[in-house]
């Protein structure tokens, strides 16, 4: 354990908080700067796959998070009419990878991470204005002053200020070609037994169980970036998906009009490195990805425990950060590419291509699907 070292983490989301927990438990003194007034998350559900739960186990939090989440019997892909194209059994998933797929509310996961940190670690309402690497230390400037530490971590998301300041030549986030809606239902008349992603033509609608007999739902549509539905997003969802196969109409009926979130989907072109001097990027700031594999938060959790491990085991900061970059960059950028490919296929709209896609999915053995996910889900700290 390396005692007495210091780090400033910019961004109080899942990745930044997890990195703070990982470093604190290795004896580091950490401060987490978050521009929002509180450490919390708006949003909806979050899929935590076995690789994420292994990372949380390193932090000693996996069992607590699992208690707060829901574990379904299984899931998979259906067509618009509700016919199964591919299925995944959660029992088989757990047998193969040691953990099931758990769905939690983002706010619940953030709360667990916050509660694992000393209160003095957290600096809400702190907007970063500069990051300066001075060779033997890094200075993080904010509206109230500055912080000096041995390491700074940019965990501040897709539009990262730390990335922009440290890598002004990096290519900006790129629009994936579709927008997404996310929502959580009220209590349902009957619990869901399986989750699914229903694929249509240029549109998808997915759902999965959450605690309290609720469901997390998401939908996508191929539209230009920056769009807003003139009569509201709730009405847009009912117009697009209200006649799809059950249980989708029932799920939409259980969503309050004000509880629909809409976000255009972006990912980040590959960076040449996640580290510059004493500054490291983590999570979406380093490798923002589309949500098609449910791996955005999972990869950020992996980043957090690997960063702490590399810094703890290396003889100096430079070699520790170099090890983090070496271990994380190729893996996460591969996940970005895989997720983008799956999303592109899921959004196909040309009827012959859709028919061929659905047939290929139906003919692919479930065991082959699980094997294809092994490089991602089989990760171990």
From TrEMBL:
User: Where would I find the FAD-binding domain in this sequence?
Assistant: 7-339
Keyword Lyase found: no
The protein's UniProt keywords, in alphabetical order, are: Monooxygenase, Oxidoreductase
Among PANTHER family, the record links this protein to:
MONOOXYGENASE, PUTATIVE (AFU_ORTHOLOGUE AFUA_6G14510)-RELATED
What is this protein called in UniProt? 2-polyprenyl-6-methoxyphenol hydroxylase-like FAD-dependent oxidoreductase
What's the source species for this entry? Streptosporangium brasiliense
């Amino acid at each position: 354990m390396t005692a007495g070292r210091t780090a400033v983490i910019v961004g109080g989301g899942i990745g930044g908080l997890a990195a703070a927990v990982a470093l604190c438990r290795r004896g580091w003194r950490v401060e987490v700067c978050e521009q929002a007034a509180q450490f919390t998350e708006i949003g909806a559900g979050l899929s935590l796959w076995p690789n994420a739960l292994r990372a949380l186990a390193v932090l000693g939090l996996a069992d607590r998070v699992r208690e707060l989440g829901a574990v379904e019997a299984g899931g998979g892909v259906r067509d618009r009419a509700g016919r199964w194209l591919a299925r995944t059994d959660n029992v088989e998933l757990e047998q193969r990878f040691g953990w099931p797929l758990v769905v939690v509310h983002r706010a619940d996961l953030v709360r667990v991470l916050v509660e694992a940190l000393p209160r003095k670690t957290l600096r809400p309402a702190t907007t970063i204005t500069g990051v300066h690497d001075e060779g033997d230390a890094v200075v993080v400037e904010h509206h109230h002053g500055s912080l000096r530490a041995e390491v700074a971590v940019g965990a501040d998301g897709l539009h990262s200020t730390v990335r922009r300041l440290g890598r002004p030549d990096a290519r900006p986030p790129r629009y994936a070609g579709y927008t997404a809606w996310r929502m959580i239902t009220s209590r349902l008349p009957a619990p869901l037994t399986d989750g699914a992603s229903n694929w249509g033509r240029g549109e998808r609608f997915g759902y999965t169980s959450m605690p309290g007999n609720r469901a997390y739902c998401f939908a996508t549509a191929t539209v230009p970036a920056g769009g807003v539905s003139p009569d509201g997003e709730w009405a847009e969802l009912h117009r697009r998906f209200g006649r799809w196969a059950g249980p989708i109409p029932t799920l939409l009926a259980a969503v309050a009009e004000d509880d629909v979130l809409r976000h255009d989907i972006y990912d980040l072109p590959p960076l040449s490195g996640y580290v510059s001097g004493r500054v490291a990027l983590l999570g979406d700031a380093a490798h923002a990805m589309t949500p098609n594999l449910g791996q955005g938060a999972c990869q950020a959790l992996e980043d957090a425990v690997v960063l702490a491990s590399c810094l703890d085991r290396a003889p100096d900061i430079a070699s520790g950060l170099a090890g983090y970059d070496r271990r994380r960059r190729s893996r996460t950028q591969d996940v970005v590419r895989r997720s983008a490919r799956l999303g592109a296929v899921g959004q196909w709209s040309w009827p012959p291509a859709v028919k061929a896609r659905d047939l290929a999915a139906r003919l692919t053995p479930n065991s082959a699907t699980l094997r294809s996910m092994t490089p991602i889900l089989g990760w171990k700290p």
